[in-house]
Amino acid sequence: MTYQAALNYLNSFINYERIEDYNYKQALKLERMADLAKRLGNPHHNINSIHIAGTKGKGSTAAFVHSILKTHGSKVGLYTSPHLVTLRERIRINDELISEDDVARLVGRIRKTVENPAYGERPTFFELYTALAFLYFKERNADFAIYEVGMGGRLDATNILKPLVCAITPISYDHIKTLGATLAEIAFEKAGIIKENSICVVSPQEKEAQDVIERVARSRNARLIQVGRDIKFDEVGGVPQGTTLCHGDNGLEIGRGTMVLRLRRKPSLKFKEVFNVYGILNEYLKCESVLLGEHQIINAAAAVGIIEALSNFGVKIPADTIKKGLRQTRWSGRLELGSRNPLILLDGAHNRASARALAKTVREKFRLKDLLLILGVSKDKDIRGIVEELEPISKSIILTKANIAERAEEPGRIREFVRGKETILTDNLSQALRRAQAKITGEEAILITGSLFLVGEAKVILEKNVTNKP
C-alpha cells in the first residue's frame, strides 16, 4: 500500500469532521472502537496516557504537556485533530510527524483486520485514525501518549483509554447540534472522559459547566485539580504587549518610543507571554511562552497541573524543566505570524468564546492602526457570535470560505451578520488575500480566522512565498 492509497482507503470511511449535521449519539459508539482495538491487540494498553477534552484550548494544552515531557527526556506521542496541512500532523512523537511509509504500512495492517469477512460494523474515519495512533505509539515504544478528544468526550473514540490523568479545558458553546444546546449538556459529554478513582485537571469554567463536572467527578470518586483554585497564575507581561507594530522597508518592526527591534529572521520568536504559575508542588516564576493571550496562560497552567498530577505515579519533573518545556512549546495556527510584510496573523478561532479571546489578545498585545479581517466559518458554527466578537476590532471584512464544500458557509450568508463594516465577498482564500493585499496600507495588518481549515489553507499559500516567511 502506498501513502496515497492509504489516504484513499481512510477517506472511504465516513468522516464526521466533514459532515454538518448528524445524530451524534447514534453515530459514535465506544463498543465499535473497543472492538477494533481488541482485534488489533489493544495497542493502547500499557502506555502511560493523558486524555484532554474541552471546547477551547485542548490542543494547546496537549502541546504544552507534550513539550514538557519531551524536554524531560521522554519519548512522547501526541494525537490531535484536526490537521492544518497534512494528515500526518495528527500523529507525532516528539518533533517528528508520523512518516508516509508508517502511515501506509500501518493502514495496510488495519485494512487486513477491517476487511476480514468476520469483521463487524464498519468503523469511522476517526476511529481508524485513532487506531493508527494506538499502533504507532505502541510500535515506537512511547513513554507517554497524549490524546486530544476529537468530539465531545463521552462517546469519542479516544475514550476507551484508561489514562493516568485527564483534563477538561474551558467549555463553551460549540457543536450544539451534536453535543447539546446548553453548557450543562455539553459539559456532560466532556466530563464523560473522567474515569473511576482518577485525577482530572479542570480549567476555569462557567458555573453551569463546573457544576456538571463536579457532579460527575463525585459519582466516580475522582479527584479534581482546579486551575484558579489549586493551580493559580498571573500575567507578568510580554512582547509585544504595549508595543506598536508597523511595516518598515526592512520588514516588520516592533517599536516602543525610540527603541526599535528589527525582526528579520525569526520574528515569531520575539512574541511571547511572561507569567507565573503557582502549583501544588512548586512555584514557576517568569515562565515564557510564544503562545499569546490570557487563554494560553490558562492552558499553560492546566498543563502544569497535569504534569504535577503525574507525580502521583512516580513521574517527578523539576521546575526548571517544566519552565523550559513551556518556553519551547510551539502550536501552529494559534495567533501565529504567517507573514511579516504585509503583517498577516493566523488564528483558528471558530466559536464565540475563542473569537472573544482572540479579539481581546489582539487589542491588548498589538497596537495596530487598522486590522483587515479575512473570515471564513463552517456552517455548524455560531456565525453571529464570531462576527459580533471580531467586527469591532476590524476596519473592513473580507468574507471567504475554506475549500471544504460539505461544511464551509457561503460568504453571502456570513455577511447577513455583519452590521457596520465594509464587507467584500470572495470565492476562495487566494482571492481574499489578493483583495486584502490590494487594500492594506503601511500600518495595517491582516487577520485570517474563523476556521482551522481556513488557517491550514493560508499556511500552504503563504509557505509558497518563501521570501516572506516569518
Helix/strand-derived category reads alpha/beta
CATH class of the largest domain: Alpha Beta
Query: Measured on Cα atoms, how large is the radius of gyration?
Result: 22 Å
Q: Count the E strands.
A: 21
Shape: globular
Span between termini: 37 Å
Please, how many helices? 16
Assign the CATH architecture of the largest domain.
3-Layer(aba) Sandwich
CATH topology type of the largest domain: UDP-N-acetylmuramoyl-L-alanine:D-glutamate ligase
Share in β-strands: 15-25%
The multimeric state of the shown protein is single chain
Total domain units: 2
What's the mean pLDDT score?
89
Q: Main beta sheet: strand number and arrangement?
A: 8 strands, mixed
CATH superfamily of the largest domain: Mur-like, catalytic domain
List the strand order in the largest sheet: 4-3-2-5-1-6-7-8
- Unreliable sequence segments: 241-269
Q: What is the helix fraction of residues, given as a range?
A: 25-40%
